[in-house]
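> forwarded from #structure-qc
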């Protein structure tokens, strides 16, 4: 209330809501890591700046908002989703904003911080074993929906997931680089980020190279998956990815720690993997503008010990 006794709305002040802060994340340049003699620019899009702390804020809002617009859901309904962490946190936040009961299913070996964040937003957690993994979580979500226990948003098959990046992430990168981006690198989990961003960037310049990342054999990196064929996300279109690179566990973790210590960028393991791919690409090209997604913040991995070299 202002000094005249008027509320902000009555006084003509347009205050933002929390969901209006999703998107328009900063794009920053690496200062110490990378080559010095190849005239490349390595840029990181800091998606951890979103209000719930990850790139998944974008599709979480998109999936719920567009489901409302189509009449599929209404406030008070129960929503169900399988998640490895970031999507669940983001959905829990959006559900809290818009008045939904949120049930999240995840493997029990995910970090304590992720589980605590979901619970803090009021979501109910259902855990499956590490052995069942995300495949088991996805199966259970669909089984619960079949029993009438709620609606599955299904980030793996929901076109409103990549739509968020066609509308937001892609245009932002194009504008922030003034159309100079030559390479785009993203981890592939649900594949929503790379599908939507690729669609937009390729519409602006078909020569932009889109590079997706999957874990190397034996690697277990939260947020990056090598899906069995029967679980490959329905939203994935291989034609939108020019190259797929395998990321080793050690490379992802070492690069993640280097980013914190050498660049002051505190991020998660999948982001370390994405930057390690960018550094490898940096040795292969010249005069390039390489954009990499930093999908979340490092604080939600502290309890796992990955920052202890």
């Amino acid at each position: 209330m202002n000094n005249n006794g008027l509320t902000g709305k009555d006084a003509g002040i347009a205050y933002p809501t929390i969901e209006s802060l999703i998107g328009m994340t900063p794009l920053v340049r690496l200062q110490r890591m990378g080559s010095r003699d190849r005239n490349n620019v390595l840029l990181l899009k800091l998606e951890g700046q979103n209000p719930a702390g990850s790139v998944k804020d974008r599709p979480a809002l998109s999936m719920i908002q567009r489901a409302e617009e189509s009449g599929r859901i209404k406030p008070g309904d129960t929503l169900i989703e399988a998640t490895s962490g970031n999507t669940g946190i983001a959905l829990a936040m959006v559900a809290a904003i818009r008045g939904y009961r949120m049930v999240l299913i995840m493997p029990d070996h995910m970090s304590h911080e992720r589980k605590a964040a979901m619970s803090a937003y009021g979501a109910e957690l259902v855990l499956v074993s590490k052995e069942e993994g995300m495949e088991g979580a996805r199966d259970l979500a669909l089984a619960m929906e079949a029993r009438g226990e709620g609606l599955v948003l299904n980030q793996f098959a929901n076109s409103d997931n990549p739509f968020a990046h066609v509308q937001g992430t892609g245009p932002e990168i194009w504008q922030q680089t003034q159309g100079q981006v030559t390479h785009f690198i993203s981890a592939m989990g649900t594949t929503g980020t790379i599908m939507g961003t690729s669609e937009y960037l390729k519409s602006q310049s078909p020569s932009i190279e889109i590079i997706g990342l999957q874990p190397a054999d034996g690697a277990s990196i939260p947020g990056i998956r090598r899906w069995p064929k029967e679980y490959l996300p329905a939203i994935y279109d291989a034609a939108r990815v020019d190259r797929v690179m395998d990321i080793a566990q050690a490379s992802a973790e070492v690069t993640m720690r280097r980013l914190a210590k050498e660049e002051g960028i505190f991020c998660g393991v999948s982001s370390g993997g994405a930057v390690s791919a960018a550094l490898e690409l940096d040795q292969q090209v010249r005069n390039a503008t390489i954009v990499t997604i930093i999908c979340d913040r490092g604080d939600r991995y502290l309890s796992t010990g990955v920052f202890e070299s």
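QC bot note: The domain at 19-52+162-301 is CATH 3.40.50.1100 (Rossmann fold). Residues 160-176 form the longest helix (17 residues).
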